[in-house]
Amino acid sequence: MTTLDRLTADLTTALKARDTLRTSTLRQVIGAVRHEAKAGTVERELTEDDVLKVLARESKKRRESAQIYTDAGAPDRAATETAEAHIVDEYLPTRLGDDELAALVDAVITDTGASSPRDMGAVMKEATARAQGRADGKALSTLVRARLVG
Q1: 43: alpha, beta or left, given left = phi > 0 and alpha = psi -120 to 50?
Q2: Domains in the chain, CATH or no CATH each
Q3: Measured distance CA(143)–CA(133) in Å, rounded
């Protein structure tokens, strides 16, 4: 069963259970996936990786919105955005922990022979490929920069 099939099946379940938050979130996510498939001049079939990238982007949007709402003093809206992000995260591969991410970055730096911040591009390219969407780009970038500088 593909991720899109799971999303659609879970939407039906949420509708039957009258779970409005989950229903709304799943509809938005499915819409984003379908929009991505239709983006461009010709509609294309999305691969599983493409679908996961859309889901990661949707989760990130919700987390950023939650932070904005928190900063603006709207904790109820922030809580809703955070809850939606958790729902989307259920369909993403498990994230790498801090120790796993550090080990991955150290291995990439060793394998590429990087020694200075000028090598950051090569290290980021390889680390992103090895993480396979299981690490936040900003956290990865921060860790790579810290390792190369210090």
Answers
A1: beta
A2: 3-89 (1.10.1510.10), 98-149 (1.10.10.410)
A3: 16
Q: How far apart are CA 83 and CA 86, in angstroms?
A: 5
Please write the tens of the pLDDT for every residue from 56-101. 899 999 999 999 999 999 999 999 999 999 999 999 888 888 889 8
Q: Which has the closest alpha carbon to 60: 34, 37, 81?
A: 81
Say which amino acid occupies 16.
K
Tokens of 139: 């956290």
Specify burial of residue 88 (Cβ count, 10 A radius: 0-12, 13-18, 19+): buried
Write out pLDDT tens, residues 41-58: 889 999 998 898 899 899
- Which amino acid belongs to residue 130? R
Cα 31 to Cα 37: distance, rounded to the nearest angstrom: 10
Is 95 within 8 Å of 134 (Cβ atoms)?
A: yes
Give the span between the Cα atoms of 64 and 78, in whole angstroms. 9
Q: Is the pTM of this model over 0.90?
A: no
